[in-house]
Amino acid sequence: MSVIKPLVPELFHSAFTSLEASLIKSGTPSDLEMRKQALAAFHEVGIPSSRLEEWKYTNLSRFSFDSFQLPPKNSTKKVHLELPLELIKADPAQCWHFYNGECLQRPTSDSFIIENSGALLAGYPNKRENVNRFQLLNQAFGHEGAHLVLPKGCHLEEPIYIVHLSHSTETPLMVHPKNTIIAKENSRATLIEIYLTLDGALTFSNATTHIQLEKGAHISHYFLQRSLTESVQISDITVQQAASSDYRGIAMLTGGGANRATFQVDLNGPEANCHFKTLELAEKQQKTDIFFTVSHHQPSTSSNILARSIVKDSARSAFTGKIIVKPGAIATQASLENKNLLLSPTAEAMTRPLLEIYADDIQCRHGATVGFLDEEALFYLKSRGIPDHEARQLLIESFISPCIQDIPGPLLSLVQEVIHGY
Amino acid sequence: MASSKELDQYLQREYEAGFVTDIESDSLEPGLNEDVIRTISAKKNEPPFMLEWRLQAFRHWQKLKEPHWAHIHYDPIQYQDIVYYSAPKTKSSVNSLDEIDPELLKTYAKLGIPLLEQERLHGIAIDAVFDSVSVATTFKEKLAQEGIIFCSFSEAVQNHPELIKQYLGTVVPYTDNFFACLNAAVFTDGSFCYIPKGVRCPMELSTYFRINAAATGQFERTLIIAAENSSVSYLEGCTAPRRDENQLHAAVVELIALDEAQIKYSTVQNWYPGDKDGKGGIYNFVTKRGLCRGKSSKISWTQVETGSAITWKYPSVILQGDNSIGEFYSVALTNHRQQADTGTKMIHLGSNTRSTILAKGIAAGYGSNSYRGLVQVSSKAHNTQNYTQCDSLLLGSHSSAHTFPTIEVKNNSAKIEHEATTGKISEEQLFYCRQRGINQEDAISMIVNGFCKEVLKELPMEFAVEAQKLLTVSLEGAIG
Amino acid sequence: MAFSPASLLTIQNLHAGVDNTPILQGIELSIGYGQVHAIMGPNGSGKSTLANLLARKNGYEVYQGTITYLAEDLLSFSPEECAWKGIFLGFQYPVSIPGVSNIQFLKSAVNATRVAQGKPPLDAIDFLNMIKEKTAKLDMPSELLYRSLNDGFSGGEKKRNEILQMTLLEPKLAILDETDSGLDIDALKAVATGVNNFRNENRSIILITHYQRLLDYIEPDFIHVMVNGKIVKSGGKELASTLEEKGYAWL
After folding, report:
1. Alpha carbon distance B32, B29 (integer Å)
2. Confidence of residue A75 (pLDDT cuts 50, 70, 90)
3. pLDDT class of C118 with cuts at 50, 70, 90
4. Residue B127 belongs to a domain
5. Are C91 and B432 in contact (CB under 8 A)?
6. Pairing of strands C97-101, A246-255
7. How many domains does one find in chain B?
8. What is the per-residue pLDDT for B107?
9. For residue range A277-318, what is the model confidence (pLDDT) as tens digits?
10. What's the burial of A255, exposed, middle or buried (CB within 10 Å: 0-12/13-18/19+)?
């Protein structure tokens, strides 16, 4: 990791002091030392500057991070809670709801095991090669999150919801959700993970999610990170896959000032597969950025990434897809496709499909396009009597349909609501 | 067919066969400081503006730090250990080709190197052999009739200082990067070419015919200007394995195309790649950039890179003029312990500009081959079109191939398409060839050449034939 | 089966497989000079395995048995040695090699074989003349010669290209693996004509086919039926119509 001078050497110092005080007061200082060390490690590297390749397209320098405070405890906001629930229609038995870091709803299902922390992860080797700075910050400030274990062989029909809401009314607040999902051998479940920043003042959400798939486990993951206000939303998702496991899903980013998701998927056993889609919808001055890395460590693994972005006004989307095939990972098949649609003259798209290949008996391909709505197709639709706006909508929908076709019903309506704005 | 090992041995012998014996007497001590630069400029009899430019570059270089990229590894270069000026070789200790090792001559024949070039490589041509002088003279006369200036860079500084002043450093300023800066301070020689308005250069200009060519320097500087409605095709390089006692090569090539002009720049590079363990071998750091300054201008880069221990080059095109076109065709082959990090940048500034990128990488042995590209569309670049295809072929389980393209689009009327594939020669393809009686080595060579076909056909004819042979020779011993 | 010492190819008790999975379970076969043998059988019976093994494709393990070709041990040959000694395999799914033109490939193959056989290579003009004549006979448009080998060729064009290669290389033993699969009637007729014109008393052919339709056009001397890696029935050409009537289950 190259050393960049931190913006403010004592960044978050006051926030940490008050956290320390409240931990000691509530009698739970057991991980205080670990948190201190994490913050110190963060101070050595600081907020990443856009001169770093990995953070080139997430410009954080315009935000003053020293203004963020941790949310005060015990602020009940039932009113806000109901709003998204209606849209999502989640089954409360399988739902986590957090509001500004406080858990307002815990699942009651007995189909899976609910843990208090991610301590179980210690049993699994940490394959992540480079620790994300925001993970360090999350270790320092991490609050309650969703931690669950899917027992061996269980098949969950209904999805599990993990919903984190953040909302600043006057003071800019920061939240650091932490989630752990361990899927034991041959278990299957659908996970819906939502980060929603509600309309208000500047908010900083920094989430870390770790998903561990044991042999033969199948996880379908639907990830949505959306903001209705100026905000910094950063998520870091680590996925470790054992042999014959299957990880698929879609990540959708929309809204906010800086909206960033980093995915690191490691295929650690033969026949492990990753099929993932990403969708970025950016308008006004929004900036979205997805950095998706898949590392093939073992032979006979496959990955398939499909990424789409639609950008309008003066917004910008960025997508970096990195496929790494380690030595010996023969019979790997990997493909990546990224298509970007620019709807206005000042919209911008940045795309980097990257391949790092160290094994020879493999098949890898990637493709990327940047373009605009097909004039010919538009003309065809209009010549059949479809008005201009509707024709554009149809083409936009067809552009992203490969991405959204597998989204479960309740989430789909939320997604479609966003898309209709475009 | 010669194996890589045998070729290596010939190269050894060539070096031992004796080069210029009096080189020590007229070269400077190793090291780099302002005095060295003044001496270089004085020895070349340069006008004051040239010395001033060099000194400015040197002072700037002293403030810079050498860049390091993740995918190239090399021993640090000791800049103070390099000799920055050597007298041009005037006499070779060999009087005719008969004195050259016949095995080496066989290699040249295999690669199709013309006899004249073989002589030139051994310094024989410079020794006023009547034929070569007359050939060179006839050539120069033909060009002069058209008003074309084609001479060494040093001559151009003497005879056409106004052109040098106008264009030098306009495409690659000395502030551009570390190696370009070093080059600006200490460049020794190179080519200069000016094609006047409306003239289509009647023949391919090649370094073969550079008059009074000294042994190719470490720090070459080339400047080609094509005035309105003119065109030129320039060939650089040689398929013969060329050893040079200098390890670091930092060249700069600037191309400028005015309205409706076209420049085609082809390179076949086979510098000594080092031995099987990666010892020795040339570090080839080159900054090449073309400026499509005029409307409807066109610049094409075509390269076949098989040599050097390390190749670091990104021939680029800045598409400033409306309707201008940039093209990049490349084959990069790495074998043994070679490392290549090469690619292109297409910067779209004007409207209705187009770029095509076709890059083929072949990684064999323990070689590492990276394509690094940038397609940038500025907000005012309306109706840009780009098509990029980069494919990598892995031969053997120890080689690696990487693709690092970056696409940045700030204008929504752009149409950008990028595709890349990585794979190996399939067993099916190999078996098919062998079942038809073609042995494995020939089959691999045929398939690799087929893989590179789209690029090779962009090379001028003779170069293409030489390049194909070169690929075959470079692949020897690569199967594994 | 009686073994004729003058036979071109003799397979005795051949047991072979892939990845430790046995496929051929004791093949006995003898091919004489100038004979056409058809091998039929349901999918998965090992017909293609036998064909690929005879051409010495990598990846097959021989557990037991011998294969003698022209009194030599065929198992000791490399794929190109097989070709030089006159064995030709017409592939079921001919692979494409982009960037390598058909004519360039054909010339390399023909000359490599000629040189190995001690004959001088053909120069460009002689080769071009020879090939134009042969493509015309096969009803192939000459522009196919200048396209990348099998790249974007239709099924029929690929199979005709295989037969063209056979007529150019003049093998002693041609093994045609499902040459008729995926062909329409015109392509089938053209291929059959090519094969029939190729037949003479010095050239033998093994026709591997799933359906008996091809045998209406190319009359075999012998028919063998392979099931589960073994030849379960051999007979003359009448065997084809019996199979057509009763199917493989009858065996």
Report:
1. 9
2. low
3. very high
4. no
5. yes
6. unpaired
7. 1
8. 55
9. 999 999 999 999 999 999 999 999 999 999 999 999 999 999
10. buried
**Residue B45, phi-psi category: left (phi > 0), alpha (psi -120 to 50), beta (remainder):** left
Chain B hits for C104, CB-CB cut-off 8 Å, are 446
Residues 6+ apart with CB under 8 A from B300: B262, B263, B264, B265, B326, B327, B328, B329, B458
State the CATH number of the domain containing residue C67: 3.40.50.300
Overall number of domains in chain C: 1
Q: Do A367 and B403 touch (CB under 8 A)?
A: no
More confident residue, A158 or A272: A272
Distance between CA C15 and CA C58 in Å, rounded? Answer: 16
Per-residue pLDDT at B12 exceeds 50? no
- What distance in Å separates residue B471's CA from the closest CA in chain C? 15
Tell me how crowded residue B374 is: count the other CB atoms within 10 A of its CB: 17
Q: Note whether A360 contacts B424, CB cutoff 8 Å.
A: yes
* The pair of three-digit structure tokens given for residue B466, joined into one six-digit string: 């030489």
- Quick one: which H or E segment has residue A98? strand A95-99
Query: Shortest CA distance to B399 belongs to which of B438, B368, B431?
Result: B368
Chain B residue whose CA is closest to C96: B429
Contacts of C84 in chain B (CB under 8 A): 437
Token pair of B150, please? 């084609």
Query: Which residues of chain B make contact with A354, given a CB cutoff of 8 A?
Result: 402-405
Q: Which two tokens mark B356?
A: 């095509």
Window from A212-216, B272-276, C20-24, C41-45 with minimum mean pLDDT: B272-276
Q: What are phi and psi of A398, to 5 degrees?
A: -70, -30
Q: In this complex, do B446 and C105 lie within 8 Å of one another by their Cβ atoms?
A: yes
**Can you list the positions of beta strands (E) in B99-247?**
149-152, 191-195, 205-206, 221-226, 231-242
What letter does residue B189 receive in the DSSP assignment?
B
Q: What sign results for the dihedral spanned by CA atoms C103, C109, C113, C119?
A: positive
Identify all chain C residues contacting B426, using CB atoms and an 8 Å cutoff: 95
Render pLDDT for B107-156 as a digit per residue (tens, 0 to 9): 556 555 566 565 555 544 332 222 333 444 556 677 888 899 988 888 88
Tell me, yes or no, if B87 comes closer than 8 A to chain C by beta carbon.
no
| A349 touching B (Cβ < 8 Å) | yes
pLDDT at B347: 97
Structure tokens at B470: 């070169």
Q: Is residue B36 part of a domain?
A: no
Domain boundaries, chain A: 13-373
Mean pLDDT of chain C: 89
SS3 A345: coil
ipTM reported for the complex, 2 dp: 0.85
- β-pair type (A348-357, B149-152): unpaired
pLDDT at A92: 80
Sign of CA dihedral C106, C112, C118, C122: positive
Chains C and B touch (3+ CB pairs under 8 A): yes
Range of the structural domain that residue B460 is part of: 49-71+146-475
In a domain? residue B58: yes
Nearest to B426 among C57, C95, C165 (CB): C95
Distance CA C131, CA C125 (A): 10
| Local structure of B216: helix, strand or coil | coil
Best interface-test mutation with A: which of B422, B426, B427, B428 has the largest number of A CBs within 10 A? B422
| Residue in B368, B359, B395, B383 with CA at minimum distance from that of residue B475 | B395
- What does the alpha-carbon distance between residue A269 and residue A273 come to, in Å, rounded to a whole number? 9
Measured between alpha carbons, how far is C165 from C179 in angstroms, rounded to an integer?
13
Residue C14 CA: distances (Å) to CA of C2, C39, C50, C90: 16, 16, 10, 22
Domain membership flag for residue C112 = yes
Q: Are A323 and A355 in contact (CB under 8 A)?
A: yes
Confidence of residue B95 (pLDDT cuts 50, 70, 90): low
Q: Which residue of B has its CA nearest to A328?
A: B397
Is the residue at C74 inside a domain? yes
Type of residue found at B220: E
